[in-house]
Structure to design on (428 residues):
């Protein structure tokens, strides 16, 4: 081979050899450390630890996995019966579909797998506690099944007595909400721990399905109490409906799917018994009810009312008030309710849903937190601060307007909670 031939071959070889510049690597290559991690066998640690006794019936199978992910969980009781359940979204634990039974042994077999297909299996056995005589904390889930709710419907759980601060994170981890389509949200607590609300940054999308489980039965809460029950419900979100009540004009504007469909004259609370200003949610609807205010500071009357829709625990309703039709649109004469004509009240009953947003503005007093389902009466940032565990920073309202029409900025109300009245309610 002559000299020119050798030079040509050398140039060709150099042209076909990849060259690395700076910190770049050849496409398709894998750092040595990453490759080693992927080929490392998976490992797994489980809780409760093997042989643990007196385990609460709210127990989950904790899974601490390295170099892999959970592929299968099998749990059986001491009679060989399979226990249904699902993994948490973050992969930290397997949650039984219902509370375990008292004073019974369980075995969990968990298999993990890595990206290379390697598997590892661990098992643990444990025994649940005997039925306890400790006091329970009563919980109430204000979200029924097989209903159609408005786009502002918060999932609400009430507690009696309230949950102490140090126990709220554990309780919150047992409050599950799933939405279809997916719309992530968070829980937020009232200061006294008597209520927790769940909502997303924006209003629910019409047609969504929301499934809730308050899995609190047997859950240790604080030093000496247990959760009382395991409750589930699944319901649908209907069309967007919202009401905007302006004290300055004494008018209610009714929006459906973002479009103004009617304006209704109203009479709100007189100066001695003013209506609350803020963002509320319709809580109940009654074709007929009785307001009995005997024993209340500003009450003392009993009156039958038609087409009543509750806004607060303190007894503020939208309802038919034929006795004040001459004042509606002009003068406030009620005991705090929004009075409308019989015709308009009947029409509203056919339009609204429990869970619809009602905004009242321009009255003498702000809405008190917890006086009704007040999850929307604060900004998203303030709402998220009420969560016991931290809320992801990327969970925030969409930059575009949500399904419900925009309303005035949320009122910054004082702290506290108005207790729920008897089911008959007050009003006027």
């Amino acid at each position: 081979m002559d000299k020119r031939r050798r030079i040509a071959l050398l140039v060709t070889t150099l042209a076909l050899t990849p060259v690395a510049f700076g910190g770049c690597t050849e496409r398709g290559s894998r750092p040595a450390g990453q490759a080693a991690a992927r080929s490392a066998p998976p490992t797994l640690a489980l809780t409760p630890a093997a042989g643990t006794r007196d385990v609460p019936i709210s127990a989950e199978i904790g899974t601490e996995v390295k170099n892999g992910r959970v592929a299968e969980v099998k749990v059986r009781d001491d009679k060989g019966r399979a226990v249904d359940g699902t993994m948490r979204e973050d992969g930290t634990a397997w949650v039984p579909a219902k509370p375990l039974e008292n004073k019974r042994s369980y075995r969990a077999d968990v298999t993990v797998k890595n990206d290379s297909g390697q598997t590892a299996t661990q098992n643990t056995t444990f025994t649940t506690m005997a039925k306890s005589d400790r006091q329970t904390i009563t919980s109430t889930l204000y979200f029924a099944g097989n209903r159609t709710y408005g786009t502002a419907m918060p999932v609400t759980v009430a507690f009696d007595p309230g949950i102490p601060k140090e126990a709220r994170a554990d309780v919150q981890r047992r409050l599950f909400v799933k939405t279809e389509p997916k719309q992530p949200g968070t829980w937020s607590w009232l200061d006294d721990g008597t209520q927790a609300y769940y909502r997303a940054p924006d209003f629910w999308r019409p047609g969504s399905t929301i499934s809730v489980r308050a899995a609190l039965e047997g859950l240790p809460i604080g030093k000496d109490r247990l959760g009382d029950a395991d409750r589930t419900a699944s319901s649908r979100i209907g069309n967007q409906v919202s009401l905007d009540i302006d004290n300055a004009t004494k008018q209610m504007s009714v929006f459906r799917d973002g479009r103004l469909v009617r304006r209704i004259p109203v009479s709100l609370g007189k100066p001695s018994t003013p209506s609350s200003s803020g963002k509320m949610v319709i809580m109940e609807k009654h074709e007929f009810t009785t307001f009995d205010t005997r024993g209340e500071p500003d009450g003392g009357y009993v009156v039958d009312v038609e087409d009543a829709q509750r806004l607060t625990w303190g007894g503020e309703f939208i309802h038919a008030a034929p006795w004040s039709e001459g004042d509606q649109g002009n003068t406030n004469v009620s005991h705090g309710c929004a009075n409308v004509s019989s015709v308009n009240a009947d029409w509203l009953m056919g339009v609204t849903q429990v869970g619809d947003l009602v905004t009242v503005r321009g009255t003498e007093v702000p809405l008190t937190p917890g006086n009704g389902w007040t999850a929307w009466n604060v900004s998203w940032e303030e709402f998220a601060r009420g969560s016991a565990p931290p809320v992801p920073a990327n969970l925030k309202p969409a930059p575009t307007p949500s399904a419900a029409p925009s309303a005035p900025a949320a009122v910054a109300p004082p702290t506290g909670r108005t207790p729920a009245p008897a089911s008959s309610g007050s009003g006027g």
About this structure: Residues 1-30, 402-425 have pLDDT under 50 and may be disordered. Helices lie at 3-15, 32-39, 168-172, 342-349, 380-385. Residues 135-237 form a domain with the Immunoglobulin-like fold (CATH 2.60.40.3710). The longest strand covers residues 119-128.
